[in-house]
Amino acid sequence: MTTIVHHLENSRSQRIIWLLEELGLPYEIKRYERHPKTSKAPASLKAIHPLGKSPMIEDDGEVIIETAAIAEYLVAKAGGKLGAPNDPKGARLYTQYLHFAEGSMMPPLYGLLVVGRLGLLGLPARKTVDQMVTDLLVWLETELQGRSYFAGDELTAADIMMSFPLEACQTRAGLDARYPNLQAWLKCIHDRSQYRTALEKGGPYAYA
């Protein structure tokens, strides 16, 4: 059965399109645009799920939300492709980074977004939030010392999960030449043909 991806422009859902390309599973995209002034998702997404958040997928008559949960579901559907490595450390790292992307990376990045929109009112919090992001980047740079991907030497769904927050960091949160391992990792994933195909199918994406 073809998976339907409810894809909001410039959002976490771009990862799901890329994942589906890597897995070789059939899918179709229903694309939604943000409000031009508020950048909020359109109300039409709430007709699919009451929370109206992207990504969400429809598969086999069920609506599935939450990016990591969707990733785990699709990996299982593809017979474990791009899933956890066989070695214990790789499996642990896979689970860690599958959830680190949303649990640890996205809260301070969202904080930066809010602080930026507050203008002068947000200045007292800016330094603290900036430091939170810097601490994460410094540590992640050391994690990629000596291995090509976050769970080992092969691409996994954990890397796909990590793509959005690190792309956002490169665009607006200081991921620059000070972090050569992270930059090399970003170049590596951006050079993948499946990644480029996902961009073509998903439409304009501000973070690639």
From TrEMBL:
<keyword id="KW-0808">Transferase</keyword>
<protein>
    <recommendedName>
        <fullName>glutathione transferase</fullName>
        <ecNumber>2.5.1.18</ecNumber>
    </recommendedName>
</protein>
<dbReference type="InterPro" id="IPR036282">
    <property type="entry name" value="Glutathione-S-Trfase_C_sf"/>
</dbReference>
<feature type="domain" description="GST N-terminal">
    <location>
        <begin position="1"/>
        <end position="82"/>
    </location>
</feature>
<dbReference type="InterPro" id="IPR036249">
    <property type="entry name" value="Thioredoxin-like_sf"/>
</dbReference>
<dbReference type="Pfam" id="PF02798">
    <property type="entry name" value="GST_N"/>
</dbReference>
<feature type="domain" description="GST C-terminal">
    <location>
        <begin position="87"/>
        <end position="208"/>
    </location>
</feature>
<dbReference type="Pfam" id="PF13410">
    <property type="entry name" value="GST_C_2"/>
</dbReference>
<dbReference type="InterPro" id="IPR040079">
    <property type="entry name" value="Glutathione_S-Trfase"/>
</dbReference>
<dbReference type="GO" id="GO:0005737">
    <property type="term" value="C:cytoplasm"/>
</dbReference>
<dbReference type="InterPro" id="IPR004045">
    <property type="entry name" value="Glutathione_S-Trfase_N"/>
</dbReference>
<dbReference type="InterPro" id="IPR010987">
    <property type="entry name" value="Glutathione-S-Trfase_C-like"/>
</dbReference>
<dbReference type="GO" id="GO:0004364">
    <property type="term" value="F:glutathione transferase activity"/>
</dbReference>
<dbReference type="GO" id="GO:0004601">
    <property type="term" value="F:peroxidase activity"/>
</dbReference>
